[in-house]
Amino acid sequence: MRARQRGSRQRGYTLIEVLVAFAVLALALTLLLGTLSGAARQVRWSADAGRAALHAQSLLAQVGVGEVLQPGRSDGALEDGRYRWVLEVEPYVDPELPPPALVDPFAPRMLALHLTVAWGDSARERLELRSLRLVQPDVESGADL
Q1: Which among 14, 83, 113, 143 could bridge 78 via Cys, Cβ 3.0 to 4.6 Å?
Q2: CA-CA distance, 131 to 112, in Å (whole number)?
């Protein structure tokens, strides 16, 4: 009888226990892989945003170099169209100050720059920068900013 009792005490895993263990393992792996793929997307987005910031910095550094900065809109593409940019330049108006009664055409002017660098198709995949520039009027050509 003792031999039977020892044999009945030693049990292995049932098929249902093995199937439940595999299901739990599959669920855990699915969650882990989903987290890793989300992290990979975030790393790629971060790399693209960093590259867009470098392009934006370069574009803003070139604005008004070698030519008089004029109000208007310009656009272009970088890296064979992967990054698209739009630059809007307009006279800056301080909302807290009343408009001046007289405008001196030979006085320096403040211009507002709005640069947008976009990549991909999503609205989230874009970088917008705003800056101000003080420009001197082009006295030689008589152009008024």
Answers
A1: 83
A2: 6
Q: Per residue in 45-78, pLDDT tens?
A: 899 999 999 999 999 999 888 888 889 999 999 9
Architecture of domain 2-135: 2-Layer Sandwich (3.30)
CB-based burial, 115-133: b 16+ in 10 Å, e otherwise: bbbbbeeeeeebbebeeee
- pTM surpassing 0.85? no
**Strands 109-119, 126-135: pairing kind:** antiparallel
Residues 111/145, Cβ–Cβ less than 8 Å: yes
What is the per-residue pLDDT across 130-142, written as a single tens digit (0 to 9) for each? 999 998 876 665 5
Which amino acid type is present at position 102? Answer: L
Q: Residue 129: which H helix or E strand, with range?
A: strand 126-135
Compute the distance between CA of residue 128 and CA of residue 119 in angstroms, rounded to an integer: 12
